[in-house]
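Contributing: when you submit paired examples, paste them exactly as shown. First protein:
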Amino acid sequence: MIPPRTILAPVDFSDASRASLQCAATLAPRWSASLHVVHVLDPLLAAASQFHHVDLAADARADLEGFCRESRLDGAAPALHIGVGAAAEVICETAVAQGGDLVVARSRGLSGP
């Protein structure tokens, strides 16, 4: 849909993902779009934390809230999503589930962050 109504911003807490989140947060109000931020947990890490009775998803949500707050999104109130699995698959599944029209992600390239 043009203009997009739902924008998804996947983040991994890196500086690159902060930049793409800020870009998505700038675009969302211009198009009156909702903003959804997704962070994906490694499935092995999630399973190990569950085995040790650690709520990794809750910790990740708190970290994601802080990351969004520190990113200064100019009043945008994004919906937050925590997923477990292969990052590309979870991002696509979240985009489909939320009716995402645009995914704003920054490439890190082969040479580093």
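Second protein:
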Amino acid sequence: MPTYTDIVFEKQDGTAIITLNRPEALNTFTGAMKKDLEHAYEVCDTDDEVRAVVLTGAGRAFCAGADMTEGADTFASQDVSTFSAAALEFPAWRIRKPVIAAVNGHAVGLGLTLALQCDIRIMAKEGKYGVLQVRRGVMPDAYSHWTLPRIVGLSRAADILLTGRTFRGDEAFELGIASRVLPANEVLPAALEIGRDIAENT
């Protein structure tokens, strides 16, 4: 197992736990996190000891989107021959085991679109959520135009993707994005319990 830079990877009772680990920056997504997460997902896919996967964030956020320390250059013109808005070349749905997003706090932009790639989403009632890219003049990423309509339907997906508005946990549940909404401190334990149940019984 390699030493990861921006995530923590551990296994517990047949469940792999992947933690986005930049709490001082609200787990904003970096190039290093992309490489770490892709590798961890591939490990989960091939490791027979892993029966379920839980993805969560360290600290008070799940992931506050792309790292914006480069300011406007974050969205500078890209080399069209190599650019991809996929975020991950190995997304969560390619893992041949259930993936549970323990969305323990804010998940906006890429933070939410990564969670949309998971099979089950347990979300914090207190969190702020939204696909904000349209408000930055860019298209939403991580295949969200494919995942979100399949989760919530075309009309609700249009509301979320075309406005870029934010919403809280209760509305995430009403929209159908969240499988369950719980207080933030209960999100990870609930996800781990689902993972343990899957590992033992399915």
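If you have annotations for the second protein, write them as plain sentences, like these:
The radius of gyration is 16 Å.
The mean pLDDT is 93.
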